[in-house]
């Protein structure tokens, strides 16, 4: 049997769970050209240009005052007046998994389609699925609602006023609206960090917008449950390098503004490339596009055999997620592979 036939016979489920599976892709497509172009993650291909760090940052545990300085810098960037409501965490994926012990024995609704981690966070709880159209109905029968805004993977955005109204309804029953704002840095005007009141809890990611996902840095913005998250995570929630780089990045408003413009322009260029090669755009965020094609698995394999990793989805066998190429060489390789 040929290599291509072996690939066709192999399940692609591992690539549907998360992006960034370069090791698995290399094993499955050993003849693919190197280096791989990873367009599967929704992470900016342009990272914050942090300077060399002092040896002490790696040699010592981060001080509590230094972590507080990071949380203050993040609070300022998010528009949050009280820095004590901003809790640094080692990536929002881990923080999502702390929701269950905090909200144990509560009725939970997860908005679908959406990020798979929102469902996986609840291992021992009864969870129902809701849609963005049924939020008000879900708020009448559940204690906690979890959604992403902008949504992953389709980029759907729910207006802040509507979310505030849903949160108010939940808060009246002692409930909580949990909003995953992993992609909110690009369009901060839609963020509800400034309204993280008793009825709203917000997750913010650092790695996607700043292109430094390996630092494993994120934040929880909450007035009611900040102490619960701090107690569960412990005295050293994030590493020293993440603290230093995070402080510098959140204070660098000029770089952030330039990054937003660069991502928006690159997204427009990706739209043009995809339309020119005959694909249908179905949504996305400035960090990736959601694309409809005749057979998502076939497109995935076709690009993978050319050393380009994209993301097939569980929700629809015709949908894939394609991120932003980093440079001219990557743009050219993607264009040629899509012909």
Can you characterise this structure?
- The chain has helices spanning about 5-10, 15, 20-30, 55-60, 65-80, 90-95, 100, 115-120, 135-140, 160-170, 205-210, 225-235, 240-250, 255-275, 295-305, 330-339, and strands at about 35-40, 85-90, 110, 125-130, 145-150, 175-180, 200-205, 220, 280-285, 290, 310, 310, 320-325.
- By secondary structure, the chain is an alpha/beta fold.
- The protein folds into 2 domains: about 5-45 and about 255-339, Alpha-Beta Complex (Aspartate Aminotransferase, domain 1), CATH 3.90.1150; about 55-250, 3-Layer(aba) Sandwich (Aspartate Aminotransferase, domain 2).
- The model is unreliable at about 1-10 (pLDDT under 50).
List strands and helices in order, with pairings.
Layout: H1 3-9, H2 13-17, H3 22-28, E1 37-38, H4 55-59, H5 64-78, E2 86-89, H6 92-96, H7 99-102, E3 108-111, H8 117-120, E4 127-130, H9 135-141, E5 144-148, H10 160-171, E6 176-180, E7 200-205, H11 207-210, E8 218-221, H12 226-233, H13 240-251, H14 253-276, E9 280-285, E10 288-292, H15 296-304, E11 308-309, E12 311-312, E13 319-323, H16 328-338
Parallel strand pairs: 1-11, 3-4, 3-5, 5-6, 6-7
Antiparallel strand pairs: 2-8, 7-8, 9-10, 10-13, 12-13
Helix pairs in contact: 5-13, 9-10
Keywords: Cobalamin biosynthesis, Lyase, Pyridoxal phosphate
Function: Decarboxylates L-threonine-O-3-phosphate to yield (R)-1-amino-2-propanol O-2-phosphate, the precursor for the linkage between the nucleotide loop and the corrin ring in cobalamin.
GO molecular function: pyridoxal phosphate binding; threonine-phosphate decarboxylase activity
């Amino acid at each position: 049997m040929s290599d291509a036939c072996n690939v066709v016979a192999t399940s692609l489920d591992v690539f549907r769970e998360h992006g960034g599976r370069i090791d698995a892709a290399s094993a499955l497509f050993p003849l693919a050209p190197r280096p791989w172009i990873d367009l599967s993650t929704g992470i900016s291909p342009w990272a914050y240009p942090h300077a060399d760090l002092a040896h002490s940052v790696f040699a010592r545990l981060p001080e509590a005052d230094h972590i507080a300085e990071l949380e203050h810098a993040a609070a300022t960037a998010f528009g949050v007046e009280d820095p004590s409501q901003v809790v640094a965490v080692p990536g929002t994926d881990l923080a999502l998994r702390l929701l269950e012990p905090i909200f144990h024995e509560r009725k939970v609704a997860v908005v679908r389609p959406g990020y798979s981690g929102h469902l996986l966070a609840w291992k021992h709880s009864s969870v129902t699925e809701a849609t963005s159209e049924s939020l008000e109905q879900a708020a009448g029968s559940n204690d906690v609602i979890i959604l992403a805004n902008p949504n992953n993977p389709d980029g759907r955005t729910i207006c802040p006023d509507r979310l505030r109204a849903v949160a108010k309804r939940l808060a009246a029953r002692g409930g909580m609206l949990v909003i995953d704002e992993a992609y909110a840095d690009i369009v901060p005007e839609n963020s509800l960090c400034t309204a993280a009141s008793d009825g709203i809890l917000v997750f913010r990611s650092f790695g996607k917008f700043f292109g430094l996902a390996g630092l494993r840095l994120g934040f929880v913005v909450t007035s009611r449950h900040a102490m619960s998250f701090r107690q569960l995570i412990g005295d050293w929630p994030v590493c020293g390098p993440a603290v230093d780089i995070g402080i510098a990045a959140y204070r660098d408003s000029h770089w952030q503004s330039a990054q937003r413009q660069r991502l928006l322009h690159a997204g427009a260029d990706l739209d043009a490339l995809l339309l020119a090669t005959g694909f249908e755009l179905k949504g996305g965020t400035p960090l990736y596009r959601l694309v409809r094609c005749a057979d998502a698995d076939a497109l995935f394999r076709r690009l993978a055999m050319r050393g380009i990793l994209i993301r097939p989805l569980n929700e629809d066998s015709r949908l894939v997620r394609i991120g932003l190429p980093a440079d001219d060489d990557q743009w050219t390789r993607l264009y040629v592979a899509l012909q």
